[in-house]
Design brief:
Blueprint (H helix, E strand, L loop, with lengths): L23 H4 L7 H19 L6 H13 L1 E3 H8 L3 H13 L3 E5 L7 E5 L1 H9 L2 H10 L3 H25 L1
Antiparallel strand pairs: 1-3, 2-3
Helix pairs in contact: 2-7
Protein backbone atom coordinates (compact mmCIF):
# COMPACT_ATOMS: atom_id res chain seq x y z
CA UNK A 1 0.00 0.00 0.00
CA UNK A 2 1.54 3.29 -1.03
CA UNK A 3 -0.34 5.53 1.37
CA UNK A 4 0.20 4.62 5.03
CA UNK A 5 -3.06 6.31 6.04
CA UNK A 6 -5.12 4.00 3.83
CA UNK A 7 -6.56 0.94 5.53
CA UNK A 8 -7.32 -2.32 3.82
CA UNK A 9 -8.83 -5.53 5.08
CA UNK A 10 -6.42 -7.40 2.79
CA UNK A 11 -3.33 -5.59 4.08
CA UNK A 12 -1.14 -8.27 5.63
CA UNK A 13 1.76 -6.02 6.60
CA UNK A 14 3.67 -6.63 9.84
CA UNK A 15 1.56 -3.90 11.45
CA UNK A 16 -1.41 -6.28 11.33
CA UNK A 17 0.39 -8.97 13.30
CA UNK A 18 -1.17 -9.90 16.63
CA UNK A 19 0.10 -7.75 19.49
CA UNK A 20 1.66 -10.76 21.22
CA UNK A 21 4.11 -11.20 18.32
CA UNK A 22 5.15 -7.52 18.23
CA UNK A 23 8.14 -6.04 19.95
CA UNK A 24 7.42 -3.51 22.68
CA UNK A 25 8.67 -0.77 20.38
CA UNK A 26 6.37 -1.89 17.53
CA UNK A 27 3.38 -1.84 19.88
CA UNK A 28 3.80 1.92 20.18
CA UNK A 29 3.75 2.63 16.44
CA UNK A 30 0.68 4.60 15.42
CA UNK A 31 -0.07 2.25 12.52
CA UNK A 32 -0.26 -0.66 14.98
CA UNK A 33 -2.96 0.88 17.14
CA UNK A 34 -6.60 -0.18 16.93
CA UNK A 35 -7.65 3.18 18.37
CA UNK A 36 -6.21 5.31 15.57
CA UNK A 37 -8.20 3.91 12.62
CA UNK A 38 -11.34 4.06 14.81
CA UNK A 39 -10.60 7.69 15.70
CA UNK A 40 -9.73 8.68 12.13
CA UNK A 41 -12.81 6.96 10.71
CA UNK A 42 -15.17 8.47 13.28
CA UNK A 43 -13.71 11.93 12.71
CA UNK A 44 -14.00 11.61 8.92
CA UNK A 45 -17.54 10.21 9.01
CA UNK A 46 -18.74 13.09 11.19
CA UNK A 47 -16.93 15.57 8.90
CA UNK A 48 -18.61 14.03 5.84
CA UNK A 49 -22.04 14.49 7.41
CA UNK A 50 -21.53 18.26 7.69
CA UNK A 51 -22.48 19.26 4.12
CA UNK A 52 -25.51 16.96 4.17
CA UNK A 53 -26.74 18.37 7.49
CA UNK A 54 -25.93 22.03 6.77
CA UNK A 55 -29.13 22.69 4.77
CA UNK A 56 -31.09 21.60 7.87
CA UNK A 57 -28.92 23.67 10.25
CA UNK A 58 -28.04 20.57 12.30
CA UNK A 59 -24.80 19.24 13.68
CA UNK A 60 -24.12 15.52 13.64
CA UNK A 61 -24.86 15.23 17.36
CA UNK A 62 -28.15 17.11 16.95
CA UNK A 63 -28.99 14.80 14.04
CA UNK A 64 -28.51 11.62 16.07
CA UNK A 65 -30.57 13.09 18.92
CA UNK A 66 -33.35 13.76 16.42
CA UNK A 67 -33.07 10.18 15.16
CA UNK A 68 -33.80 8.89 18.67
CA UNK A 69 -36.78 11.24 18.93
CA UNK A 70 -38.10 10.10 15.54
CA UNK A 71 -38.03 6.55 16.94
CA UNK A 72 -39.48 7.27 20.38
CA UNK A 73 -41.44 10.57 20.08
CA UNK A 74 -40.75 11.18 23.81
CA UNK A 75 -37.71 10.14 25.82
CA UNK A 76 -36.19 10.92 29.19
CA UNK A 77 -33.15 13.17 29.03
CA UNK A 78 -31.05 10.68 30.99
CA UNK A 79 -32.14 7.81 28.68
CA UNK A 80 -31.30 9.93 25.64
CA UNK A 81 -27.86 10.65 27.08
CA UNK A 82 -27.27 6.94 27.69
CA UNK A 83 -28.44 5.99 24.21
CA UNK A 84 -26.18 8.58 22.56
CA UNK A 85 -23.35 8.10 25.08
CA UNK A 86 -23.39 11.82 25.89
CA UNK A 87 -22.98 13.46 29.28
CA UNK A 88 -25.36 16.13 30.53
CA UNK A 89 -22.81 18.88 29.85
CA UNK A 90 -23.00 18.05 26.15
CA UNK A 91 -26.65 17.05 26.02
CA UNK A 92 -28.21 20.07 27.75
CA UNK A 93 -26.97 22.74 25.29
CA UNK A 94 -27.71 20.41 22.37
CA UNK A 95 -31.33 20.01 23.50
CA UNK A 96 -31.63 23.75 24.15
CA UNK A 97 -30.59 24.46 20.55
CA UNK A 98 -33.05 21.90 19.17
CA UNK A 99 -35.77 23.41 21.34
CA UNK A 100 -34.90 26.89 20.01
CA UNK A 101 -35.38 25.49 16.50
CA UNK A 102 -38.83 24.22 17.60
CA UNK A 103 -37.94 20.56 16.93
CA UNK A 104 -38.58 19.42 20.50
CA UNK A 105 -39.91 20.54 23.85
CA UNK A 106 -38.33 19.85 27.23
CA UNK A 107 -40.62 19.42 30.21
CA UNK A 108 -40.94 17.63 33.52
CA UNK A 109 -42.41 14.15 33.29
CA UNK A 110 -46.11 13.99 34.10
CA UNK A 111 -45.49 10.66 35.85
CA UNK A 112 -42.38 11.68 37.81
CA UNK A 113 -41.85 15.42 38.20
CA UNK A 114 -38.18 14.89 39.05
CA UNK A 115 -37.56 13.49 35.58
CA UNK A 116 -36.99 15.71 32.53
CA UNK A 117 -38.31 14.43 29.19
CA UNK A 118 -38.03 15.69 25.65
CA UNK A 119 -40.83 15.31 23.13
CA UNK A 120 -40.82 15.67 19.40
CA UNK A 121 -42.83 18.59 18.02
CA UNK A 122 -44.77 18.56 14.77
CA UNK A 123 -41.99 20.62 13.20
CA UNK A 124 -39.42 18.09 14.43
CA UNK A 125 -41.50 15.21 13.07
CA UNK A 126 -41.83 16.86 9.66
CA UNK A 127 -38.04 17.27 9.50
CA UNK A 128 -37.68 13.47 9.37
CA UNK A 129 -39.18 13.23 5.89
CA UNK A 130 -36.92 15.99 4.57
CA UNK A 131 -33.82 14.26 5.90
CA UNK A 132 -34.20 10.86 4.25
CA UNK A 133 -31.59 12.02 1.74
CA UNK A 134 -28.88 12.18 4.44
CA UNK A 135 -28.36 8.41 4.96
CA UNK A 136 -28.53 7.89 1.19
CA UNK A 137 -25.82 10.50 0.60
CA UNK A 138 -23.63 9.06 3.35
CA UNK A 139 -24.12 5.55 2.03
CA UNK A 140 -22.72 6.65 -1.30
CA UNK A 141 -19.53 7.86 0.43
CA UNK A 142 -18.50 4.65 2.17
CA UNK A 143 -18.52 2.26 -0.80
CA UNK A 144 -19.36 -0.82 1.29
CA UNK A 145 -21.89 -3.50 0.48
CA UNK A 146 -24.88 -3.96 2.79
CA UNK A 147 -23.22 -7.12 4.13
CA UNK A 148 -19.98 -5.24 4.83
CA UNK A 149 -21.88 -2.44 6.57
CA UNK A 150 -23.72 -4.99 8.71
CA UNK A 151 -20.48 -6.74 9.65
CA UNK A 152 -18.73 -3.46 10.44
CA UNK A 153 -21.60 -2.34 12.67
CA UNK A 154 -21.56 -5.73 14.42
CA UNK A 155 -17.82 -5.50 15.10
CA UNK A 156 -17.99 -1.88 16.26
CA UNK A 157 -20.84 -2.73 18.65
CA UNK A 158 -18.79 -5.65 19.97
CA UNK A 159 -15.78 -3.39 20.54
CA UNK A 160 -17.94 -0.79 22.31
CA UNK A 161 -19.67 -3.42 24.47
CA UNK A 162 -16.34 -5.03 25.40
CA UNK A 163 -14.79 -1.69 26.33
CA UNK A 164 -17.79 -0.76 28.46
CA UNK A 165 -17.72 -4.17 30.20
CA UNK A 166 -13.99 -3.79 30.82
CA UNK A 167 -14.50 -0.30 32.27
CA UNK A 168 -17.36 -1.54 34.48
CA UNK A 169 -15.22 -4.35 35.87
CA UNK A 170 -12.48 -1.90 36.87
CA UNK A 171 -14.79 0.46 38.77
Amino acid sequence: MSNKSELSVNDTSPQDAPESSMSLEDMLLLDNQLCFPLYATAKEVVRRYTPFLAPFDLTYTQYIAMMVLWETKTVGVSELGERLMLDSGTLTPLLRKLEDKKYLVREKSKVDGRRLVVSLTQEGASLKHKMTVVPQEMGSCVHLSPAEISELKRLLKKVTDNILKSADSRE
